[in-house]
Amino acid sequence: MAETAKIPQSASGTERVPTVIADDVHIVYRVHGGSGGKGSATAALSRILRGDKGESRGVRKVHAVRGVSFTAYRGEAIGLIGTNGSGKSTLLRAIAGLLPTESGRVYTDGQPSLLGVNAALMGDLTGERNVILGGLAMGMSREEVRERYQDIVDFSGINEKGDFITLPMRTYSSGMGARLRFAIAAAKDHDVLMIDEALATGDRKFQIRSEERIRELRKEAGTVFLVSHSNASIRDTCDRTLWLEKGELLMDGPTDEVLRAYEKETGR
Ligand SMILES: Nc1ncnc2c1ncn2[C@@H]1O[C@H](COP(=O)(O)OP(=O)(O)OP(=O)(O)O)[C@@H](O)[C@H]1O
């Protein structure tokens, strides 16, 4: 489970300040009814009637993150790369405290915010209401939300082609939804901001705006994690990159070096 640890500030101000420490983190999902027939309602009912405890029968384990350790520092933008299913989203969810660790620990300075493509906004409400809800959910006051409302809408670019902000969010394209979610999350300064694929969905103009905002967030002393399948986004935004494969940390180093090795291995 993620914990908040008080990490002392450096006296000189030049020392690197850690914001996230992952110490030998293992994460295991338990999938109920994962194999043939065992997942049906009648099978579950007969198990209950037999009094099975469930852990051994019909429960499959997926060991998604295997012994990952690293330390992230204030001011860093860190890319997370790896092929599909390598454990990137799982690791971010654990850092955000949304998933328990099987063993090992995550220490964080402050509350990390995870901005995923599935960030919980309400499809039936208008973009306008979602900006307000999202702002309040991130801990802004009503006054702060009111002050930043126009900036958020302008940043998202939602209204560039008409008055879309007053339409329900379910009517937005996936790119429009992702832009609004990013604009809401980026309106606040975060200690640790984690972005899961959000940039890949916006168009080029929006990507450039987001990359600028990520650079600003870094200057404001936060740490940014970015999961992306776009090597160009990682290259433009991150100076350090972690490469995960089958849940293990294969490489951790300067972005150029890690991407070169990744591109050689995967051919892209
Ligand atoms: N809710 C879940 N229940 C069970 N297994 C899961 C769950 N979410 C992910 N997994 C498994 O955990 C492993 C890592 O998945 P994860 O989504 O973290 O990978 P990823 O690197 O983010 O992938 P992608 O690049 O495709 O988004 C995969 O084997 C996946 O099947």
Automatic annotation (TrEMBL):
Keyword Cell membrane (UniProt): no
Domain ABC transporter: 49-268
InterPro entries, sorted: AAA+_ATPase (IPR003593), ABC_transporter-like_ATP-bd (IPR003439), ABC_transpr_TagH-like (IPR015860), Bact_Polysacc_Export_ATP-bd (IPR050683), P-loop_NTPase (IPR027417)
Keywords tagged on the record: ATP-binding, Nucleotide-binding, Transport
The UniProt record lists the keyword Transcription regulation: no
One Gene Ontology molecular-function label: ATP binding
Pfam families reported for this sequence: ABC_tran
Source superkingdom: Bacteria
PANTHER family per record: TEICHOIC ACIDS EXPORT ATP-BINDING PROTEIN TAGH (PTHR46743)
Family designation: Belongs to the ABC transporter superfamily.
Protein's name according to its UniProt entry: ABC transporter ATP-binding protein
Organism the protein comes from: Streptomyces pyxinae
